[in-house]
Amino acid sequence: MKQPVIQTERLSKNYAADGVQTHVLSNIDLALYDGDFTVIMGPSGSGKSTLLYCLSGMDTPTAGDVRFRGSSIAGLRERDMAEVRAQHFGFVFQQAHLVSNLTLFENVAVPGYLKAGRTSAETRAVAQALIERMGLAPDARHLPSQTSGGQQQRCAVARSVVNDPALVFADEPTGALNRANTLEVLALLVELNERGQTICMVTHDVFCAVRANRILYLEDGAIVGELELPTWPSDADAALVKAREAQVNAWLSSLSW
User: Fold this and answer.
1) Which UniProt keywords apply (predicted)?
2) Distance from C-alpha of 233 to C-alpha of 18, rounded to nearest angstrom
3) Residue 170's beta-bridge partner residues?
4) N or C: which end of the chain has fewer CB within 10 A?
């Protein structure tokens, strides 16, 4: 039986500006389970990224609770929450956000030095293995400015898992990539998931979403739909992609996507 990594209870998030309250998330109850590849979809402004940031401790909910492995993290001090993120969560964003004066290898390795109980030599070995797995070995000593956007995003994926996180949060990780690089990044995420990595990804692209085994649909700050899918097969072909896209598009249409 799958165990929850993250659970929420009546999670809400409001913003106040000029005396006006904006309700972004409203009383969300959800669980993200070990080994799942969960995608969050919804129209622009529905609260997708805000939900991701509240789940990962990058933002603080206005009300409700977020529990990691059964322990509440919603009310942690920023210093303590930063430690939880460093030890247990990985992040991939639409932009790679690499450190410009560090090589690709160094960008992957540096967060690894924060991992508790691991030596520097072990971190370097893990980083090197990830660089090779991501197909970046020929460019490992290059600065980000000397590489392509696709290479930079593959580096960001490697960096997100250097600490063997319980969960990787990905916010539109292919949003700035062309289709060829999108396919490469999706293949890496699928491979990581096949190896047991839990992933939660926000995307607006059905082509990306069909790789998940679970899709949540967010509208006006509330989850209004959920779709379970078979685990994405490693030998998926164009026909399967088209069939899965048709299934997901039909489901989304039923939700007024």
Assistant:
1) ATP-binding, Nucleotide-binding, Transport
2) 50
3) 92, 201
4) N
Kindly report, residue by residue over 139-154, the tens digit of the pLDDT. 999 999 999 999 999 9
- The answer to whether the beta carbons of residues 248 and 255 sit under 8 Å apart is no
- The CA-atom distances, in angstroms, between 212 and each of 9, 45, 204 are 24, 22, 13
**Cβ-based neighbour number of residue 245 at 10 Å:** 14
| DSSP 8-state assignment for residue 229 | -
- In this structure, the number of other CB atoms found within 10 A of the CB of residue 119 comes to 10
CB count within 10 Å of CB 234 equals 9
3-state helix, strand, coil in the chain (%, to 5): 40, 25, 35
> What predicted TM-score, i.e. pTM, was given to this entire model?
0.95
Tell me the residue type at 97: H
pLDDT tens string 82-92 = 999 999 999 99
Any bridge partners for residue 67, and if so which?
A: 7, 72
